[in-house]
Amino acid sequence: MARQIVLLRGINLGPRNRIAMPALRDALGAAGYDGVRTYVQSGNIVLGSDQTPDKLETAVEKLIAKHFDLQIPVIVRTGKELAAVVKRNPLADAATDPKRYQVSFLSQALGPKQIDELNALATDKERLVANGRELYAWHPDGVARSKLWAKLAGTGLGVKATARNWKTVESLLAMADE
């Protein structure tokens, strides 16, 4: 079974969309997924599956709806795809704090006009690089007041999306390689 990384959007951030990771691991294991592991509480899962990423996304969304009565968007990347995201690292020279360096994982690539609109929101210090279905964003002053981050974190991109900081991305890759 291929190692795949399953990213849930918007869970365990405050009082809504609560999913206990042990219960999620149990539900995924009972559904036949192999070696299910989670990382922190924000919906990061590494598991083995022979399903294509698209089919796995749909299956996990349905599983969460059935077991937890929640409608949670899911993005999946294979271990090889995540390794390519880390290897690419287009902001390695600028991004010095992995907690302020974000990767947004998208269900499909954005068009040039959308990328231009996002870049227009960035401050002079912020940087954004689009590469296929990933957006790499450097927020040196944090995300609290960032208009770019507000747009990336919202639902207005027109595609399913979820973001992880660089530390989490690297940790998930290490888990997938184990």
Describe it for me?
The chain is of the alpha+beta class. The chain folds into 2 domains: 2-80, SP0830-like domains (Alpha-Beta Plaits), CATH 3.30.70; 83-166. 37% of the residues lie in helices and 25% in strands. The chain is built from 6 helices and 8 strands. The protein has helices at 21-30, 53-68, 79-88, 112-121, 147-153, 166-177, and strands at 2-8, 34-39, 44-49, 74-78, 101-106, 127-131, 134-138, 161-165. The strands form 2 sheets. A 4-stranded antiparallel sheet has the order 2-3-1-4, sandwiched between helices. A 4-stranded antiparallel sheet has the order 6-7-5-8. A hairpin with a 2-residue loop joins strand 6 (127-131) and strand 7. Helix 4 crosses helix 5. The mean pLDDT is 95.
Which labels suit this protein?
25% strand; 37% helix; globular; alpha+beta; 178 residues
Condensed summary:
The protein is an alpha+beta fold and 178 residues long. The chain contains six helices and eight strands; from the N terminus they run βαββαβαβαββαβα. It has a four-stranded antiparallel β-sheet with strand order 2-3-1-4, sandwiched between helices. Strands 6-7-5-8 form a four-stranded antiparallel β-sheet.
Number of helices: 6
Order of helices and strands: EHEEHEHEHEEHEH
Radius of gyration: 16 Å
Strand order of the largest sheet: 2-3-1-4
N- and C-termini, Cα separation: 13 Å
Quote the beta fraction.
25-35%
> Which quaternary structure do these chains form?
single chain
**Integer count of domains:** 2
Q: Percentage of helical residues?
A: 25-40%
- Report on the biggest sheet: 4 strands, antiparallel
Structural class: alpha+beta
Global shape:
globular
